[in-house]
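Why do we bother with holo predictions? Because pocket geometry can differ from the apo form. Keep that in mind while you read this record for zinc ion.
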Amino acid sequence: MLKHIALRYSGLFFLFSVFAFQSSCMKGKKVDLIIHNAKIYSVDGNYTIFDAMAVKDGKIVELGPERQILNKYRCEEAIDANGKEVYPGFTDSHGHLLSLIDQKLNLDLRETKSFDEVLFKLEKYAAKSSRKFIVARGWDQSLWALKEFPNNEKLNKLFPNIPVLLIRVDGHAALINECLMKKANLSKDSKIAGGKVIMANNVETGLILDNAINEVTKLIPPFSLKEKQETLLEIQEELFQYGITSVHEAGINFEDIQLFESLIKSKKLNLNVYAMLYPTEKNKDFAKKNGHYVNKNLSIRSFKVVGDGSLGSRGACLKKPYSDDQHSHGFLLTSLADFKEISAFCRKVDYQMNTHAIGDSTNKIVLDIIAQTFKYKKDHRWRIEHAQVLDLIDIEKLTLYGAFPSVQPTHAVSDQRWAENRIGKARLKGAYAYKSILDKTGIFALGTDFPVESFDPFLTIHAAVQRKNVQNLPKNGLLMNEAISLKECIQGMTLWPTFACFQENKSGSLEKGKDATFFIADLPVRSYSTFQQNFAFMTFIKAKKVYSAE
Ligand SMILES: [Zn+2]
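The structure, written out:
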């Protein structure tokens, strides 16, 4: 009975609200879109939460209480958010769309549990593929029962005549067969700056590191533009499902600019892309010729410099040797002379320099370069990508010269299985130290480094706030003194990334005059101690609905 009355009451209330809304629809200023009955996290300076907002010509006209917005504005399309939360569109501040395209078009080896499973998948793939060069990505020996790096013995037997390249999940190590070894002229005698051909008992194992991988990747026959376009659009759809409306693409070649521009021209790319250029000659010419380049939703005004490798493959450059390999302290992938040259070039063309720095030695080198830049320009926003292992005295220096950290919380919880073995307890204090970093800089950009990690932003929240992976491990969270709050995490995925790409005046928060780029979350965005999946219910870019779960 009670339920019945309640139903009738809510029915009456519904009638009333429609009537009230219709009457308000007839008066007031005309706008294109109204979102109401929502919890709009504006991520403005006061982190204000509003009920409703009005949008015209892709921009926000006003945010305010429900009645105020509904009385003041009218429109053809009003969306009742049913009390759901609304956030500015998320940015993934460090991703690799091009690698993900590659991964989708090639064989995916993530989730493999042993090297034998890798071989099994390869045979199956080769049987139905017409490609004359097999490329697979995503293996990670630390997830296998036998946690050792593989060699190419079995691979050579299975594929004696067709080149095979198996890239490790972090992209800093690869296993290749003898056929490819010959094709690329790689042997124990190869001298490659910033790269290595790994040997065992004085024979090549097939394992190669860092710049040695470039020697083989340049031999891969390219996919067609059409294949890449179609795959990029698939990825775009997946990003919108998570409320991600912007990606900082961490390194592209000159030829890749065309891929983005072709999809902008055909009006199919809605995603905002901030692309960092690799410092090749062609890209430098591009920077000289174009300066700060903007073509609709593609902007280019930065270089990506790869300072060192990864901790997983012991390629990160450390001040002191690895704790689990006293003979190695990793190596730089960009020489000091090249660092000097490219940083001077960036200053000259007023491009931002974003340097991949994992090891504490590389981070120190980058900080010294940033200190030089600070003398010329205070608001340079030069970024340290990853800022993964820092000497505690270097964390202190972060704020002095305006360094802008760009970090990936999911790396912390993925690496926790072996990070302490690699660098030891003492150095772990300055590793994945997001709270310490944020305390110094007051701002940072969050990303995932996809496809190394999933681009699911709710996993980033879980990793940053709970410091746990998808399996909810480690049980008590990893180094919990380095956990950040949910609010800081949201800021790190919305407003702060726009500072990292000089777009804070047009997006990143929901404020009057800014782009109406936002998503309605399906479930409330929280950080639960037990992980909960979440998605966008609807995603909008400049008021255009680009995704709907309905
Ligand atoms: Zn990366």
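The longest strand covers residues 244-252.
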